[in-house]
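Continuing from the previous page...

OK, I double-checked the sequence for Acyl-CoA dehydrogenase against my notes and this is the correct one:
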Amino acid sequence: MDADTAPSPLPAGDPAAYRRAIRHWLETNLPPAWRSDAIARAEPSLEELKDWEARMHRAGLWGVAWPKAYGGHGLTLREHLIVSQEVGRLPMPESVNSIGKELAGPILLAIGTEEQKKRFIPAILEMREIWCQGFSEPEAGSDLAGLRTRATHDGKVWRITGQKIWTSGGFRAQRCLLLARTGTLEDRHRGLALFALRMDAPGVTVQRIRQIDGEAEFAQVFLDNAPVEEADALGAPNEGWKAAVRVLEIERATNRMYRAWRLENELRHLVSACRADPNLSALIADPAYAQRLAQFRIEIEVLKRYVEGVVEDLVSGGAIGGRGSLIKLHWSEAHQRFAALAMELLGQASLPPAPEVRAAQRRFRKIYMRARAETIYAGTSQIQLGIIADRILGLPRAA
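Thanks. Re-ran it with the corrected sequence; updated structure tokens here:
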């Protein structure tokens, strides 16, 4: 199949044919050296990843359920789920524009003007504009209602002053989905506004943050009277909290919908690497380790059912609601435990390690370190538990 040829349209009543087309395209076009489980792995450059994601869009794998009028493919979330499952099945590189495609895009489609949809959505899908998210601040991480970045209108444009932190991919982004305060700090949830900030605007300074794994994927963003045109304000100035809640629901439930299937791939890789080593092969046959690995098989199936249930409800006109917190809590906690188990096992490999084991050690070291943040970003586990108690269980608030 040609790299830019879209899979055949979904045959009526035959999603299996659609799945086969997606699977064939991915297996045919994903460079083998880009696989996280490759023994001789080569890290793709930013330009290579941008080109890869643009090709994925042209082939029908991004913007699956977005309207054709804005560059999408006009299918449903069911097809989007099929694509996500097939993406998760392979150890592919993470998207460098997941904020644009999984968070900014859905919000733009929900609250953006017609002009904004036509301007922003195709640019996201074609990888002409990468987005980052400007929510967290040094004094307002999970408590977004306490953010201090201010937006004031000078009669011509909005002016943004403040600081954002833990801004994933901020150094490479052209746009920022930015939440700022138009009212007073005491207003809390009221008086917040959402903007599509240009990252090259005057007064915007980006500083990368070095992480525990040696990479610098995060950034802090300083805003000094940075201008935002009226045409780049998203929704009404006093409805930013509603929009932010929608962003977080998406981030927790349907953003990177492939996570359960990627965790399944990681489990297969771990078991395969262990079987290539006599010490590890004996360990995973031990009932204690076998039971722990089987527990993650169960965790994966539970997470799949969560995601599939939300998709069916959304297709039927339902809302994500507090279930996004269930999904985020379950995945992040389970993934941390799994990463710890992988490091525990691989640390007991024979010396020198076989090539398959070295590849797994490289992959799972990175997964382990990155997983430390997964119970923090998009709201800490404590925040998720509070949302579940309030919105799902209906428990009374503590006095």
